[in-house]
Amino acid sequence: MTDRQELPILVIYTGGTIGMRGSERGLVAAGDFGSRMTNALALLPPGRQGSLPEYVVWESPHPIDSSSATPADWAALAELIARRHQDYAGFVVLHGTDTLAWCASSLAFQLQGLAKPVIVTGSQKPLGVEGSDALDNLEASLKFAARAELREVCVSFGGHLMRGCRTRKWYTQDALGFESPNWPLLGEMVDHAPVIYAARCHDTSGAPRFECLTDPAPVVLRLVLWPGIRARDVDRWLNDDQIRGVVIECWGSGNLPEDDALLGVLARASAEGKVMTAVSQCPFGAVHLGTYASGRILQDIGILSADDMTPEAAHSKLTHLLAGELTPQALRQRFLTPLVGERGAFTA
Ligand code: ASP
């Protein structure tokens, strides 16, 4: 496998800290990133520069702080990649770190059957600032994006390559940035060269099955339990016809309070057709809804196990499936099936 491809890489700049500049109000999203990126990469030692692939930069006319990103932004990104899929060897998406794992998860479900690498990255400090991680992340992402054996949406950050729909932002400031708690690294930068662990990568076959989200995306609520949560509050939140799905973040292996009023509210929402799934508040490991009596009741009222999915992946997957025209039964069956390597334990 060579690092050089005949087609260039498309770098898509959406905003985020990597391209931010200081202002009176603090860091703000800024444009003119392509030339800044090219100038910065030109400062790399010749050996490292020589192994960079050719690239073209597309800049969003309205770069944003990703804390304001919405599913419409992910849909626009997926459409751009789907439209230009044949024209480039791979894609690098430059994104703010705050919602980067959400974007990567959504892209993975929208771009199923990808035949090329889509590498999402950003940085904890702006490009050009002393001690910035931006240049290392740009170099790594370009080099990973040129690896034809990668056929999925990945996150490259802090020298690590991770499956996009398995990542979570883990550190507010550390250059590692992200972790992939339930799936091992897909690759690493070693001495500034990309190393891929092929046996851990997603094996796609067949034609791409791109299905970009339409605007507005289905509304999926995220319900995080805390001790003392009141049924009446949950009832108010769920009592909304526009809400079509709910991701419940349970305790441990999938438990919730044995509170009949709360269970009644969830059972009613489920019976009304809201699709509900349970993830764990623990970052490592999976939910097993049958283990405790307090978790088995979730199964009884039709709540789907999210297994070891991240909340970001469970939410994006539910949003994506609800946007399609699936029967309730087909939707439930697809939710429980791994589509892009988002659920299920790794076995070596
Ligand atoms: N607030 C920034 C953003 O998500 C943080 C970052 O990029 O690291 O765009």
UniProtKB/TrEMBL annotation:
GO terms for biological process: amino acid metabolic process. Transmembrane segments: none annotated. Residues 223-335 form the Asparaginase/glutaminase C-terminal domain. Substrate binds at residues 66, 97-98. It comes from the Bacteria. GO terms for molecular function: asparaginase activity. It holds the Pfam family Asparaginase. Residues 9-193 form the L-asparaginase N-terminal domain. The active site is at residues 17, 97. Coiled coil: none annotated. PANTHER family: 60 KDA LYSOPHOSPHOLIPASE, L-ASPARAGINASE. Belongs to the asparaginase 1 family. This is L-asparaginase 1. It comes from Salinicola socius.
